Amino acid sequence: MYSVNNYFPKPSFILFFAMLEPLQPSNNPPLVEAIFGITFKDPVDQERLNLFHNTQYVKERYPRILPGVIVEVSDSADEDRPIKTSHQKDGYQLRSAVEKNRLVQVRATQLTYHNLRKYAGWETMFSELKTLWDEFCKSVGKNDLSQLSVRYINQILIPLPIENFEEYINFSPKMPDGINKKLNNFFLQITVPVIDNVTATVFMARQ
């Protein structure tokens, strides 16, 4: 009843990835983190969120529970304390005792599933995400969704300054004639439509 497929708007990102031609896996992928995000249309209160981390599923698979906190910093009229800070609880973080490269973030507005460092592959991660979402809905209840996302963060070590960026990556900034082609820093972003209601965004920057 609470299948992840039932709550993904159509066409979903399942279809999007099915459209892509399969690529040969890299022997040494530069992946730092893969993040699967499910954003709720309306915030879920802390009491309902706690129902999930008290389930047997979480206790067995994610026994390490860390509280989530939002820190707000603002100006203060008090001359002795010009900076005012406040703390507010916001969900929690779940970590596996066995799979060190798995992480679950549960917040009032979003549930995210993280694969750190060694990537398990799309089929494995999506299957685990479906189970995670089913268990979440069984305990917390039905939630309308506003957004689904998949984000891959890659880190590629390149010596700077760069003489020819295209020697490393075929998507590169184009420099006009008359300007030094050596790059000390850069930030690029492109967003392209894939299918209805689905877009792909690529960020590239020096870290």
How would you explain this protein's 3D organization?
With 207 residues, the chain is an alpha+beta fold. The protein has two domains: 126 residues, 2-Layer Sandwich (Alpha-Beta Plaits); 52 residues, no CATH class. It contains five helices and eight strands, in the order ααβααββββαβββ. The strands form two sheets. It has a six-stranded antiparallel beta sheet. α3 packs across α5. The chain is globular and about 60 Å long. The N terminus is likely disordered.
What is the mean pLDDT?
78
Gap between N and C termini? 43 Å
Poorly predicted residue ranges: 1-21
Number of strands: 8
Helix content: 10-25%
CATH architecture of the largest domain: 2-Layer Sandwich
Tell me the series of helices and strands, N- to C-terminal.
HHEHHEEEEHEEE
**How many domains make up the coordinates?**
2
So how many helices?
5
CATH third-tier fold name of the largest domain? Alpha-Beta Plaits
What is the 3D form?
A: globular
Q: Could you tell me the radius of gyration in angstroms?
A: 21 Å
Strand order across the biggest sheet? 2-3-4-5-1-6
Structural class: alpha+beta
Query: Which percent band covers the strand fraction?
Result: 35-45%
What is the CATH C level class of the largest domain, in words? Alpha Beta
Explain briefly what this protein structure is.
With 207 residues, this protein is of the alpha+beta class.
